[in-house]
Write a structure and sequence with these properties.
The structure holds two protein chains of two kinds. By secondary structure, chain A is α/β, with parallel strands linked by helices. Chain A has helices at about 40-45, 85-95, 120-135, 150-160, 180-195, and strands at about 1-10, 15-25, 30-35, 55-60, 65, 70-75, 165-170, 200, 215. Chain B has one domain (about 1-220). In chain B, about 85% of the residues lie in helices and about 0% in strands. The mean pLDDT of chain B is about 95. Classes of the chains: A alpha/beta, B mainly alpha. The interface of A and B includes residues 49 and 72 of A.
Chain lengths: ~220, ~220
């Protein structure tokens, strides 16, 4: 369970939000709404541990969110895709980078969708499954610089299928995705929440996700 | 450790893919050093006297070339965010970058320095001292350069700022590196100079990654 109490943050010289309090239970989803510049991305970066909080506390269970590694997966505005590497290599790097599972007490069951991919070791299998989750299997050996903007976005989102982090932070995740990809992304979100995972997303368009709470920033 | 290795492997793989960028520093080293015989004449006594200085200054400048992109690309495409939330300390990320810079640029510079020194008519007995100085010297350049690259990250015109920041820091390295080679060609022991280089390396080894790590955290905020 994630609890935020009395958050306040600056961007540059400007106070973007203050006294922000919310709670995300296991399996919950929170949508951040608000006009451009209202601090949605700032809040997501703070939750990811990349920004600085001026006031307030972020609690994960009984401890501090920042004290525990491997809790968050972050998909920001930038796709973090290296054009020089192939699609599979890009994903493989993040598979190697993800720290040991810290999923509180739960072990992660395999994803319930996509064809079963036969690989030489568990990591390869995980990458194959993550690629399949967003229909990238056919592009696996293509250098990432050949991908379109939407395909790069799908590659960024496929990292989510790979991670063991229980808290997903998404900054306009569906930007540039086609309808089929949005459906696949919806399946990914549904499975994640069914396992008790949490989602916090900033968006201007409806996400393929039911039963969400909303925090409106102004 | 597994994560650290993943970053290092990715850095090396990217350097391999962008082979032209990787070779550019090395070719710059060879080309600038080759300009000196053309500019000051091929007289062996003059050239041999200043050869250690030429090799060191050119190596210094060549090592600076790839630093501009050391963190820049990762910041622009969002990879740096992903590295920093991986749970790895920021200083460890910087350390992986240092090692990658040394393997891709620093060590090849040491290897290229030997034929270059011969070409510049350096006394043969001084060449081992030159290389023995360049070995910790290039590592120091990687360490100081990476710290500098992290500090100017996100600054406007960071590419111009970087040499202004890093070059003054590398002056002691240059002084003792050249002094070691000079001492050897004068028949003296190069040992004290090499030991001082080693001492600087021992200080920079923990300090530079820590400084770079703190700068990286600041850059993404």
């Amino acid at each position: 369970m994630l609890r935020a109490e009395g958050l306040a943050a600056f961007r540059g010289e400007r106070l973007v939000f203050r006294d922000l309090t919310f709670l995300v239970p296991a399996g919950g989803a929170l949508v951040l709404a608000g006009a451009n510049g209202s601090g949605k991305s700032t809040l997501l970066r703070i939750l990811a541990g990349l920004g600085r909080l001026e006031a307030g506390r972020l609690l994960w269970g009984d401890g501090d969110l920042a004290d525990q590694a491997g809790l968050v997966a972050f998909v920001g505005h930038q796709d973090a895709v290296k054009p020089g590497l192939t699609v599979a290599e890009n994903l493989g790097f993040y598979a190697g980078l993800s720290s040991t599972p810290s999923w509180s007490g739960l072990t992660r069951p395999p994803l319930s969708h996509g064809p079963e991919v036969v690989g030489s070791n568990p990591t390869m299998k995980g990458i194959g499954r993550a690629l399949a989750a967003l229909a990238l299997t056919d592009l696996a050996d293509l250098p990432a610089r050949m991908l379109s903007a939407g395909q790069k976005r799908r590659l960024a989102l496929s990292r989510l299928a790979l991670t063991t982090a229980p808290l997903w932070l998404l900054d306009e995740p569906t930007l540039g995705l086609d309808a089929a990809a949005i459906d696949r992304f919806g399946v990914l979100l549904r499975d994640h929440r069914a396992r008790g995972g949490m989602v916090i997303a900033a968006t201007h368009v409806p996400l393929p996700m039911p039963d969400t709470d909303e925090v409106r920033l102004s | 450790m597994k994560q650290w290795r993943a970053i290092l492997v990715r850095e090396l793989r990217l350097s391999l893919r962008h082979g032209a960028d990787t070779l550019a520093a090395l070719l710059f080293f060879v080309l600038t050093a080759s300009l000196f015989p053309l500019a000051i004449g091929p007289a062996p006594e003059t050239l041999g006297r200043i050869a250690p200085g030429i090799v060191w200054v050119c190596a210094l400048l060549a090592a600076l070339l790839p630093l501009d992109r050391q963190f820049g690309a990762d910041l622009e495409d969002g990879s740096l965010d992903q590295l920093l939330i991986s749970g790895l300390p920021a200083s460890a990320i910087a350390a992986a970058k240092v090692v990658a810079h040394w393997v891709v640029t620093g060590f090849p510079l040491v290897l290229t320095a030997a034929p270059l020194a011969v070409m510049l008519r350096m006394p043969l007995e001084a060449i081992p001292a030159l290389l023995a100085g360049l070995l910790p010297g290039t590592l120091l350049l990687s360490l100081l350069g990476t710290a500098g690259a992290a500090i100017v990250l996100g600054a406007r015109r960071g590419g111009v700022l970087l040499p202004l920041l890093v070059l003054p820091l590398t002056m002691p390295v240059l002084i003792f590196g050249v002094a070691a080679a000079d001492a050897a060609s004068g028949g003296l022991s190069a040992r004290p100079h090499l030991l001082l280089l080693a001492a600087m390396l021992a200080a920079a080894l923990p300090l530079c990654p820590l400084a770079a790590g703190a700068a990286l955290r600041g850059a993404v905020e």
